[in-house]
User: Fold these one by one.
Assistant:
Number 1:
Amino acid sequence: MRPLPDALHDELRAALRRALHDVPPRGDVHDLLGRLGLHGLEIAPAAGGLGLGLSYGVVVAEELGRAAACDTYRSGCLAAETGPTAAADVAAGARPPAVAPPPAGDALVRARIRQAGYLVGLAAGAHELAVRRSGERRQFGRPIAAFQATGFTLAADLVQIEEARLLTAYAAWLADRDTAGIPEAAADEPRGWPPADGEPELAAIQALAAAAEAATGVTRRALHLHGTYGLTGDAAIQHYYRLAGTEATSLGRPAALWRAAGHRRLTAGPDTEHTTAVLAAAGKDER
Amino acid sequence: MDFGFDPHQSRLRARIRAVLATPGVRRAIDDLAAGTGEPDERPLYRAIGAAGVLAPDWPAEFGGLGGGPMSLAVVAEELSRAGVPDTLHINTVQIVGSVLRAIGAADQQRRWLPRFAAGERFACVLYTEPEAGSDLAALTTRAEPAPGGYLVSGTKIYSLKAALCDVALAAVRTGDPGSRYDGITLVLIDLHAPGVRVARMPSLADEHFHRVELDAVFVPESDVLGEPGAGWAALTTALAMERTGLDYALKAARWYDTARAALTPGDAADSLADLGRHGARADAARLLAWAALARLEEDRFDPVFAAMAKLHTSESAAAVAEWGAALHGAAAAPATGRARCLESAWREAPGLTISAGVSEVMLELIAGSLSGSAR
């Protein structure tokens, strides 16, 4: 048990953050990612990739979201997994198709986890802008961050971001473990463990729902803390807010995701006979 | 990132599970559940302590297994799973034991730690006073110098389990009454000493509080922890290290499982989104607690991360309790075991966001850490 980033996570994050530093919001970063050799991060070495797994993929996705970048990373990984573009071509820097059919199965699970990473990044990037702005902007003789109403909003948002980040990292770890075929732990887990009953599907659904709500909520409050300036074309924050609106629903609306998560929680419930009746009443169409 | 328990942790888990399954321990747990009123868990802890698993993070010479903070968390998870009430363990081993290990002198450690680990002696905490709660630096309990030690006078309140304990870790003022952070000293108080009066304060929750009146209680110099007058730093560190949030996360998991299992078919269709949402919150609480523990384990303790973990886990447990009560009601005389658990949770929940650092203080700590803020 070590739910902390390892040295490679930190290195990857730092390198990407440096490279994305001067990219404007909604900038195209396809070539930049190519120069860093990151298109094939999750692709098998046999196809010219690095074979690093989703645990690292979500770090890339988060940093892209933090920069509010228009990336081909998520669509590229998906295209390589579902077939429109050969994995070797994606790793070599081919652009994936702009429009792809909605994914299903394992590809959907993995796409949702990457999407959660990107949304965590959007929230984190917007939060950093809000922290900076509220430290600089003075009203009534002091920085607005010095007012408790502002400080508490920023503090609570930091916790919401961390919650979504951990749920995402956990989902990625679970999906990687599933892919690697590592056997499930024996039935000697503590109560309430493993999270999401050890199911990558449920972990992905709840990570995406939590990250989507973090992105829409945090970007909205971050824009609010910018004042009217935040609405103007000059303000970077409005790009985060706009992106959150579209990215939060692209692989399932949060309301539907929470219902699907609840349905899965019922099937994992302890009392089978009772659960059958509850599930029947809840309807069987929730996925 | 690794979210799996390693073989060492799994072995420890198997070991404590075996201890908790022995007939003597099982019987002691069942006796507690069968009793009425607030139970006396000391016989149960003696039975577990005899197997040497209560303080796995302490060195062997103090009755431990030489592990780190995570090994203690494994034990705490298993105690919770087996239905062992956790307050005596948290106070004795996790709080008072940790402070003794951090700043206690060698003879103080030798005197108390092995008996704590064996479940033979129990400790509670005397920090809060009628006029000093979140603002602990306002405490006024006085320690006047006396030959060979101090005479301590004052009133401490909201102490859990004080009536069952042998010794208390108390924060007292040895310095100038007008100062705040200077002149605070941590001492061990013998709760059987002359001048100590323990009175029960009834509580909304199942566990009652105690008011501890100290009337010129003699505390020998050998029971002063660390440097006299320099207790504030140790106190704030100890408070911060309590804040991994694991105990709150365990409550969130237990209450969530109970509410889920008690769901009626009629409720189900309306409750799917809440089931998903609260399940995710309970999961996230557990992940945050273990992430805080991992930082402790690697000597990278981060008080701001701990504040985030404490805030999230306690607020999540309270939210789950509220949901459980809304689903199932919190009737005064619940019939089933599940309803009893959820009714008790409803009464316990408000205390979680207050104890070990009220949510607003956690938000202050987090807000103060944000760069660019002028707080």
Number 2:
Amino acid sequence: MSIPGLGHIAPAPPPGSAAAAAALVETTTVKLQPFWEYRFEVPASTTLTIRLVNGTAEKDGTELAPNTPYVFTRMKSKINTWQTCELEITSPNPDGYHAYTSMPNNPDGTSLVSYLNLSFKLEAARAQVQRSIAAAGENNISAAGMGPRILVCGPAYSGKTSLVRMLTAWATRRGNQPMVVNTDPTHGMLALPGTLSAAVFATIMDITTEWGGTPSSGPTAIPVKLPLSYLYGLRSPEENPKLYRVLISRLAAATTSRLAEDPDVRRSGMVIDTGDLSADSTTGHDALAHVVSEFSVNIVVVLGSDRITADLTRRFAGQKTTLGEDIAVVGLDRSSGAVERDSAFMQSVTEAIIKEYFFGDVRRNLSPHTQQVPFDAVTIWKVVEDPTNASSDEDFYDPAASESSLEKVEPSLAMASCILAVVYAGVHDDPDTIRDANIMGYVWVAGVDEAKRKLKLTAPVPTRLGDRPMVFGNYPEPVIGLTG
Amino acid sequence: MASYQESEHFAEDFREALEDLQVNNRYDIQNLTMIARENTEHALAIAQTLQNHIKRVASHKKLPSLYVLDSIIKNVGTPYTLFFGKRLFETYMDAYASVDMATRRKMDEMLKTWKEPIPGSIDTRPVFPPDVTRPIENALIKARTSAMAAQQQHYRNEQQLLGRGRPMPQQPPVPYRNTPTPPNVRPSSQASGYPGNHSNGAGPFGPPAQAAGQYPQHQNISMPARSTPQPSANTPAFQPPYPGGYGMPQPGISVDALNNDIQQLIAASRAEFARNPHDPSIQTRLKALLDLQSILQTQNLPQDQLVLIKNRIAELAVTIRATPAQTPTPVPIAPAVAVAPPPSAPPAAPKVSLDSLLGPGALAALLARSSATPQVSTPQPPPATMAIRSPPPQRVDLPKPAAPAPSDALSLMDMLRKAGMIPPPPTGPASGSTPAPNHMPSMPSLPFPLPRPAVTGPPTVENMTLDISFTPSSLKQFRPHLIPLLLNSLGTQCTQCGRRFKNDAEGKTKKTAHMDWHFKVNQRIAEADKAGQNRGWLVDEQDWLGTRETIDVIGGVPTAQSNATQGGSVAKAPKMQYIPVPDDPVLLNSVCPICQEKFKQVYLDEEWVWEDALCVGDRIYHASCHREATGGSSSVAAVKYSGGSRGTPEPVLGKRKAEVSSPISTYIFFV
């Protein structure tokens, strides 16, 4: 199979012209022994095509299809194998990427092995729940147990998201449908950055992107996942802990409801990704504890920090989830291949994701729709930072703290190039309703004409804007030249 | 639901308690039953722990553990019946394969009680439902049949080998038939099989050792057979020689001691034969033992052969005793030979066959060794079969005449399977050591396939991960047996996306659907590329909650714009549906069964049709009514009925109901 969309651009060379193709691009073959990893870093400027020639290999838990080229760009990741495999690596720019093979001698102690064991422990719990669901009957699944809710946390660059992806992919491969929750506003999952989201993963993931795409009008070769997302609009939970908590509670309520109704998801449980956790951040720990309690997390995995492990073990000792389970805290090594992704790289990734949202990627061209909208026809709210209340404790009822996290703003030049989220609420709803509404999609402010009082908005769907309120915050940052 | 950790801790405690259960002790079993009764919230963990324990422990400890299972089932019942029942086949057959014949009888008796109601209970249902016990029975019958056939085959082969010069069996079956069952044995194993029923506290496990609970290692000390080794029927046990010294040939093996051992084996075999006169394997073995005895008495065998014989005897004995490591140290006057009483063996025929006991291959190998043994007078040529043969071991203290013969092949399978777990006896004849005790004679390869645990299937992921705990050290340990669960055991890969599909019928069906999906999607991608696409809106929370993930279904993921009227959208809601006006006058007057209204007739494409109509079976519905009633599941059928030849009907036919087709359309934004 050719990669969809690529087929028209670069038809596969007929047999016999391999030599001609080799002249254009450099092809290398990498053979991996069990537990070896092929680690690569591809900048945005070039691509790396990996083809599994024989054996079995996987990326973040998702198996590569045999003899299928996977094109990677703007990615730092790895391909590993449990058995052996032979990979064919092709790049138009051999000097443009970095790659090496990690060759552990002994499987014991490699981080992948511990992740795999962890995954199988979750599988066992799922099998157990499956039986209790079968015993309780499909119509009464809330009486049955619930699959494991596992949260992955740790300091920056410890491989949290990779582990979440692995646990998700392994569960999916064995026929489970885990609810994947992203509580890290810095990165989006099936959503733009600044968004908290959740989605059920029932099918294979698109390994050439972080999480795959969201639904579009056309078909996709890899099934899209349908996220439920809420706009936080800020980079870190510390910037508005109150709003963060409210949205986490919203997300938890929705996902828990889904788990109460959908037996496949209930059995599979949740896999929760979190933002970077600093050992010294009290706010960060509090926010994490809120996530743990709201999602009834019963397994907390800490990557790469003994200190955080100890802190959390102490914190959750004796605590029970809403289902009466103990909260297990286990510290594991950071993902051995995790690399630092500097802010410039992340900025480039963020921009690429936003661009992909509107325009698609090389495999799928999307056509967004740009329209002029009068200032008066739109309702725009802005997320405010809340530094003053950073330390206020939400566990106590405080009638004075009812001030909303949103403020209504007039369109202005300051909004240019911003990303606005369109949410499922009415334009006349009160700020809290708008804050609690889930995201329908995003529009990009292509231009602001203050003289004519008109906004130029690029929307993914050619529909009238203005029936729904739009919300934005400081994050993601304005994207200059999206169309350029 | 109890938390993992709690259950895990509990299971750990329970496992430790099980470890302490060395013998069939009623009080211990009652205690464990009580624990299980009082902790049904951990029933699953207990059931798993116990079944794993049964699987793991040495064969002589399996029966007590099985009795714990039996006791829990009979005294507590649900939910344990459910949990044990799932893996009962596996647990039972696994244990059955690895225990000696005596224990098998006990297990047979226990199985029998499982098919009956609990004695004294008002519940008339059997302990386990028939669909749990029947597969076990079937497997046992199959195993026995195969074993018997193999035995008979072997017997015939042997007759041929021995030829005319060979004496007829000196002990025809008839004389033994009336041998009484030892009276001191019979009460110790009632049909119930449940140890708690024994008022004297003597368990059915092992020989009728009254002191089993206290002196498990010395059960045989009080055996009458030791002092009076005449071939009476009630010589259930004999002293197995000390197993430690078998590894290498030793000087000074006492022929007398060997004779004595053989004598006891003969006695045991006779007693068993009396109860199973139709079992040719026992007959064969008994004859072989008698032959061996006469060899020893009439010929002067070299030491290395004596070692071979002694080891063989010891193997048999050790297997029967099932307490190899605990066998008392031999008396000093005969080093490495345990039993010293003088033999009082009956005379036997002079021409004998070692092969019948040791296997032809063993003897051949022996003969081939540097120390030639010309004085062996066994005349038959070394058979070509390389098989390591030995008669199955026997037990004496089994009172149930109906108890079937054991399946030696099961034992063999088990030995192979357990290789590494339970130290298997050395099997190379050339090394002078002895074959596996339960080996099927004359069967170089597996005599019949071990019945697969058809009920339970492969080991579940739960069982395979029981040893993993949420600790870094446990998680870091590599478990190679888990890898296939993500790869090969999931089937073969889809060549397009890498997803795996099992190779069974269900997997093939799924794969077909999956490949269809790929095909259609690829087709549509090509179409969509021409038409242009755009990102969709996400659905709102309510719709998201109602969404169920669809696998390999086109248009499975809803978008909030799927009803939007725009070009290029291939994920549209079902098209306008209609059917030709029926010719049948009865049908012509039909109404929609859901709304009881008539259908609206319109002229379309040079034909009168009923718009918004859908034919399901022989009834005609309003398509929109039907969609509402069935939750949209009929959309596939609807597309079919809309007729490809007719082309797309105009969507402006004043559709009566279609605009309320889906809640999603609430969020349509018109340009």
